[in-house]
Each structure stands twice: as structure tokens, then as C-alpha cells.
Design brief:
8-stranded antiparallel sheet; alpha+beta; binds guanosine-5'-diphosphate; 31 strands; 530 residues
Length: 530
């Protein structure tokens, strides 16, 4: 029988909002994050939040990669308080080679804010990320940014969002002009007008305009008045009335317009966000659904970050608290290892500061120093056997054989590969027939990162060799004889993943196609969760 805590605990859950900001690089994610932190008083000056972007030129510059990794530890989680709400923003890497990191981070949030550049509209990276959110029914808010620059027509932008992102939208604010003619926004949510002044330091105050036919409107926006009236007529005719429940169930996305750089429209976004964004929700474990208000602590690891100081081999495992209260120095059950672990220095991330904390609540992210016990997806509990679902690995897209380049260091290489792949940098397969190790990634950059980190953190050298591989698929079947037959015939195209599961190595689309046709009782899985 599950036990639930008292009111104080429930209040702590209800005042938390854990979300991620996602965008195509350069749309303004970093700028928006920074402005949100400024509102929370978490930082005092602009420029304090560093972009976690790994630029393409950085691939040949390893100091740069290390610097970027430092930034991405510092910005992994940014917690702050605003109007008595505890907000946790989870950072997601902008570079597409690290898309899997982003997918995993999306499993740890309860909602997302999508930033779109008003001139560029919906870009490819946004499409991919939103697809993942849609699969999970994550509530989405959209912020259309850079209205101070010439941009597309707002109706066209909303159309594009509906078509490309397959989202239904309803605007909660509406822009008056754009670029040099940008006058401000009309906030449909609180029925007031916000006038734009570029680069102002202070935060704009809304002017209440319940009724847009009010003749005084002309005094504020002059010849843009008629256009605004016409636009809003059309808006109320075309878009559905905003209902919080539709947003919370992922059916409709409220849209705001603004300019993050000019701090314009950001506060309305934040004020609306804390009112309507979901409080921490429970999660499904394989065994059962877990409610955040349950008394017993549970959580899962969604990200692991290695220490960049090669003299300290420790890592930080990021744990999303799902239920109960996490307490410092209390022994918890590491389900996969079937071991009790205690944490003397659990870390909270407030803005850019890390600090040791005594307790954490559902929705919070706790950083645990770890000497190698954790893998992505691990579950911690007070003793119950639970396995949280929903942290899939995707079938990689790029493959290489990895060979030891220094015979004296084979142990170091094995350990390095094991730990780096536990962190989720790449996937490791072992060819069944050959015993050769194969690394699979979603981006080319990872190969370089692995080689570099093996050398610098483990003292191991590796060499890559090409492999002709189109795709890997995890294989399962209830039809034992068919599976055995397949495995016997395809022996040289089989590998094991790190968990010892069978993987088919398809060297061409044709090979995959024919295998699927010839062996109808075998299931070919392209994500590790099946
Ligand atoms: P990210 O890659 O999504 O994190 O984007 P950044 O926040 O780093 O922004 C990319 C560039 O766009 C930077 O040069 C920002 O100064 C600029 N930028 C962000 N918001 C605005 C805006 O509202 N107006 C204008 N004109 N530029 C902006």
C-alpha cells in the first residue's frame, strides 16, 4: 500500500515547474533562458549565460570542446525562484550530433517552450525535437522570437507551425508590425497592449484594452490600429479559444510573440507559464505508474556528465526526482546493481551555482557524484524494484569498428569505452562472430569526442576502421525456431549490445528489407525500448 506525505510536501510539488527550451540553433534559446533567469533574480547581468553551442569549427579544436563541455555542465539545469514558484530549466545541446542527449533530457521535463525565429520560421532541428515531444504528449508553448527584425507574416508563421510541427496552435499574444515597424504586442491572454521600445532596460507595463474598438487605441499605435483590429477578428474566427486542459494534454499550443534580446514579451510568457504549465507529473515504470505525491523516493538517471578534470575520474549523474523526498545521506536502492548507495554531496543547480542540498522534491533534478555506478536510465528507489520506462536508445546512424592502438593499454580502452557508452555518448556493440567492437552514433562529432576523451581521461588510444553498415535493429521473437534459424544463417551479421541483447547488423536497406520479409515472426526494433 502506497503512503502519501502531508500538505507541506504537496505544496512543494505544486510549486515546481520543470521544463526545457528547445529550438533550432540561433533562434534565441540562450537569450531567452538568460532573460528568464534575470526575471528570477538568479543572475544580475546579461551575458552571464553562455551558449552551449558546439560550433562546427570547434571540431578540430579540442580545447574548445572541453570549454563547451564545461559550459554544458554549468547550464545543465538552471533552477530559480520566481513569484514563489521553483522553476527548473533543463538545457539541451544545440548541436544536432548531440540530439540523443536532447531526447533523453526531454524525458525528464514536464513541458517545453519552443523558440522559433520569426524570419526563419520552422527549422529542421525544431521539427525533430517537437516530434519527440508529440510522442510523449508533452505540453508545448511557442515563443516566436526576433519580432524586432523583419519577419514573416504572423498568420503564415502559425500555418507553418501547424503544418510542419503538426501542432494545433492558438495565439495568446499578437504582434503589431515587425522589423523597424514593430510597435508591440496585444496580449490576448490578459487583454492589454504592450508597446515596444528597443533595448530598454526596464520591463514594459501593459495598458489595459479590453475592447479593441476603443478609439484611444489610435493614440498608441496610430495607423497600425485597423490592421490589429482586423487581425484579431480573424484570430478569434480561426483559432480555438484557449483551454488550459487542451494545453496540458498536448492538444493545443499557446503562442507568444516577442523579442528575447529586447526583453520584450518574455515576462508575459513567464507569467502565463507559471500559471498554466504542468506541475511535476508522475512517470510509468515497467511495473506500475508512480505518482509524484507518493512518500517513497524514486528517481531515474537521464544524463551523466564526466568530470573534466582528468585527475578526478568522478562523474555527475543527473537524477529526476519522480516521487517522494530525496534526502542526503539516506541509503537508496540502485535497482540495476541491487545495491544500497548513500550520497553525501547531492547537488542542486540554482542558476549557475551548484550547492549541496539536504532534500529535493519531485520535479527537481539532483546531481549525484558517481565513480561509475550509474548508467543512463538507472532507477533509484527506497527498496522497491522499479524500472522507469521511456529512455530509449535509437538505432545509430553511423558506425565504425574501434581498435586498440596501444597494446599496453587494452584495459584502459575497455574501461573507457564502457564508461563513455554508459554516459550515452555512443552505443557499443560486439560482433558475435568476430568479437570486434563496433561504435554506433547519431553524429560524426562523437567519434572525435570519444577518441579524444579516451586519450585524455583514460590514457587509451583507439583507431577507427570503416564498417559497411546501414542500420542496426534489436531482434526479438516468440517464434524460437525461426529466431534460431535466423541467427544461424545470419551469424556474421549479429552482434550483442551492452546488455547482451541480440542485434542484427544490416549492411544495406535491401538486406534489412529482405530479412524482414523472410522472417515475418521476428520483430526488428529501431529503438531500444520494446
Ligand atoms: P540559440 O542558439 O538558440 O541559443 O540562440 P542565441 O540565444 O545564442 O541567439 C542567437 C543570436 O540571435 C544572438 O546573436 C542573439 O543576440 C540574437 N537574438 C536573440 N534574440 C533576438 C531578438 O529578439 N532580436 C534580435 N534582433 N536578435 C536576437
Amino acid at each position: 500500500c502506497k503512503k502519501f506525505f502531508g500538505m507541506g510536501f504537496i505544496e512543494e510539488i505544486k510549486r515546481r515547474r520543470t521544463f526545457a527550451i528547445i529550438s533550432h540553433p540561433d533562434a534565441g534559446k540562450t537569450t531567452l533562458t538568460e532573460k528568464l533567469l534575470l526575471f528570477g533574480g538568479a543572475i544580475q547581468v546579461a551575458g552571464a549565460v553562455k551558449s552551449n553551442k558546439i560550433t562546427k569549427t570547434a571540431t578540430s579544436d579540442w580545447m574548445e570542446i572541453e570549454r563547451q563541455r564545461g559550459i554544458s555542465v554549468a547550464t545543465s539545469v538552471m533552477g530559480f525562484e520566481y513569484k514563489d514558484v521553483k522553476i527548473n530549466i533543463l538545457d539541451t545541446p544545440g548541436h544536432q550530433d548531440f540530439a540523443e542527449d536532447t531526447f533523453r533530457t526531454l524525458t525528464a521535463v514536464d513541458s517545453v517552450v519552443v523558440v522559433i525565429d520569426a524570419a526563419k520560421g520552422v527549422e529542421p532541428q525544431t521539427e525533430k525535437l517537437v516530434k519527440v515531444c508529440r510522442m510523449r504528449h508533452t505540453p508545448i508553448m511557442v515563443f516566436i522570437n526576433k519580432l524586432d527584425r523583419p519577419g514573416q507574416d504572423p498568420f503564415d508563421l502559425l500555418d507553418e507551425i501547424e503544418k510542419k510541427l503538426h501542432l494545433r496552435v492558438t495565439p495568446l499574444s499578437w504582434p503589431i508590425g515587425n522589423g523597424p515597424g514593430f510597435r508591440g504586442v496585444y496580449n490576448i491572454f490578459d487583454r492589454s497592449l504592450y508597446l515596444f521600445e528597443p533595448n530598454k532596460q526596464r520591463v514594459e507595463q501593459g495598458i489595459a484594452f479590453d475592447d479593441l474598438s476603443n478609439p484611444f487605441l489610435v493614440q498608441y499605435i496610430g495607423d497600425a490600429t485597423q490592421q490589429l483590429r482586423d487581425d484579431l477578428d480573424l484570430v478569434s474566427g480561426v483559432y480555438p479559444e484557449f483551454e488550459v486542459d487542451d494545453y496540458l494534454s498536448g492538444k493545443i499550443c499557446p503562442v507568444f510573440f516577442g523579442s528575447a534580446l529586447n526583453n520584450f514579451g518574455v515576462r508575459e510568457l513567464l507569467d502565463c507559464f507559471i500559471r498554466i504549465a504542468p506541475t511535476p507529473i508522475g512517470r510509468d515504470a515497467e511495473e506500475r505508474h508512480v505518482d509524484p505525491a507518493e512518500e517513497a523516493f524514486t528517481g531515474f538517471v537521464f544524463k551523466i556528465h564526466a568530470n573534466m578534470d582528468p585527475n578526478h575520474r568522478d562523474r555527475i549523474a543527473f537524477v529526476r526526482v519522480v516521487s517522494g523526498r530525496f534526502e542526503r545521506n539516506k541509503p537508496y536502492h540502485h535497482v540495476r546493481l541491487d545495491r544500497k548507495l548513500k550520497f553525501a554531496n547531492p547537488t542542486a543547480f540554482m542558476a549557475q551555482k551548484k550547492s549541496v542540498v539536504d532534500e529535493m522534491y519531485p520535479g527537481d533534478i539532483v546531481g549525484l557524484y558517481d565513480a561509475g555506478n550509474f548508467k543512463i536510465g538507472d532507477t533509484l528507489t527506497e527498496g522497491e524494484i522499479l524500472h522507469y520506462k521511456g529512455i530509449p536508445s535509437f538505432s545509430p546512424e553511423l558506425f565504425r569498428y574501434v581498435e586498440n592502438a596501444d597494446p599496453m593499454k587494452s584495459k584502459q580502452l575497455a574501461k573507457g569505452l564502457e564508461q563513455l557508452t554508459d554516459e550515452g555518448v555512443a552505443q557499443l556493440f560486439t560482433g558475435r562472430a568476430t568479437g570486434r567492437k563496433i561504435i554506433g552514433t547519431v553524429g560524426a562529432l562523437q567519434f572525435e569526442v570519444i577518441q579524444y576523451r579516451l586519450l585524455h581521461e583514460y590514457g587509451a588510444s583507439c583507431r577507427y576502421e570503416p564498417i559497411t553498415l546501414h542500420k542496426t535493429a534489436w531482434i526479438t521473437s516468440d517464434n524460437k525456431p525461426m529466431l534460431e534459424d535466423f541467427k544461424a544463417r545470419k551469424a556474421s551479421f549479429l552482434a550483442l549490445d551492452k546488455e547482451g541483447r541480440d542485434v542484427f547488423l544490416a549492411d544495406s536497406p535491401y538486406a534489412l528489407q529482405t530479412a524482414m520479409e523472410k522472417y515475418p515472426d521476428i520483430r526488428f526494433h529501431f529503438t531500444s525500448e520494446f
